[in-house]
Amino acid sequence: MKITCGQYQICNNAIVADSFFKKLKGLMFSDRMDGFDGMVFYGTNAIHTCFMNYKIDVVFFNRKNEIIKIYRGLKPWRHTQIVFKASRVLELANGQLPLEVKEGDHLDICTS
């Protein structure tokens, strides 16, 4: 899955946490994103970084792919607040989200 925001390439090979167990595990216990550069969670409006070993950038967005909230450099053993208007989350490696991308922007998601 490729994800862009305007002229900015965000992910070239994002994966979807599309099962209960993938959502449950997420990025926990990993040392890095290996073989992919982002993880998308549908039906989610809050996350935690318990049992993670590295910082991540987190993008909360809605069904229209509008960015609602951004957390940059979220450290291990933290949690986000519930982002009530969001229904999806994109987790990225720390620093991967361009600084020019901001709340209110629109994500373009290509699944093929």
UniProtKB/TrEMBL annotation:
Note the InterPro entries from the entry: DUF192, Saro_0823-like_sf
Question: This protein is called what?
Answer: DUF192 domain-containing protein
Q: What is the lineage of its organism?
A: Bacteria, Pseudomonadati, Bdellovibrionota, Bacteriovoracia, Bacteriovoracales
